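Instructor's aside before we start: the two examples that follow are unrelated to each other. I chose them only because their records fit on one page, so don't look for a connection. First example below.
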Amino acid sequence: MNIFIWANGRTGSNNNLIVDTLVSEHNKKGDRIFTLNAESASFDEASIKNYQDELKKADFVYFTYPVHWGSYPNMFKKTVDSILMYGYAYEYTAEGIPVALLTGKKAKIITTAGHPNEYYVEQLKAIHYLAEKTILGFTGIESIGAINFGGRTRDKVEGFPVEELVSFINK
């Protein structure tokens, strides 16, 4: 299986731990993995084309990012805007109806946040809905699950519930 991990995380962060766990779990299965870290992405034409080619090959996509002010971090959003362009990820019919061009792929969303999950229950639904419907769904990628790991400050990786993450990955 071809796996595309679309991440946003700095070295030593919870999201880096998530990416490492994703890679480890999919390596055990012999999957082919491509990882795009929005923090270190290049935005020249050749790099964007490479990201698009890798995403096109993917059977499964992971979005993993920290929640910043109720949304994705700006660099994650920049990669979304740069890669999922008109003519590649979607197009319109003559009548103006959108047509998704990345069908046949499945995805899961994994977010982290500094606040506890209980504090932000309704907002997390909206945050995940935003990624599930306005990005993945619009482009034809089917979201099959979302999870948030709350109470996680950027550098607090000790005590991260890796077993819960592994269970989410493998279900």
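Example two begins here.
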Amino acid sequence: MSAQRSVRRPRTVILGTARVVLGAARVALGILWVGEAIVKLRAGFGAADIALVVDAAPRGTRIPEGFRLFAEGVMGPLAPLFGATVPLWELALGVLLIAGVATLPAAALSSFTLVLYWSSDQLTAVYPLMAVLGVGILLWPSTARRYGVSRLLSTRMPRRGARALVGGRWA
């Protein structure tokens, strides 16, 4: 019996530590996204900022052709829409990650958003850290959501109801 305990104890400690670390990474990523949104909202981010990105796309030597086409064909004509929704998008990502709701989709969309920002050559110092945090969450989403609202709901509600409420396996 004591040999069995000695094998389980380190595994339990490692798993518990992983839950805390990945939960903290999820919350930290969420806080960083909320911070990005607040900066943009306070600065009056809008269509003019999107227009700057669109105007720079054809001249940028580090901007992929696919993003150039997207910027000119989609972002340019819809600059007011993108200008209004980018800070709200970042805020939504942050809130979802902090709360631990839809952790896997939020982390995937976070990574996609960072790739889009990098493609537009709009890199800030915090984006690499955000990418690393997002990769950890993408690799172990169920561990990262352990201390979130989705997990709380799934343990407090009957299985079928909790899955329907928080999006089933994608929660």
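The mean pLDDT is 85.
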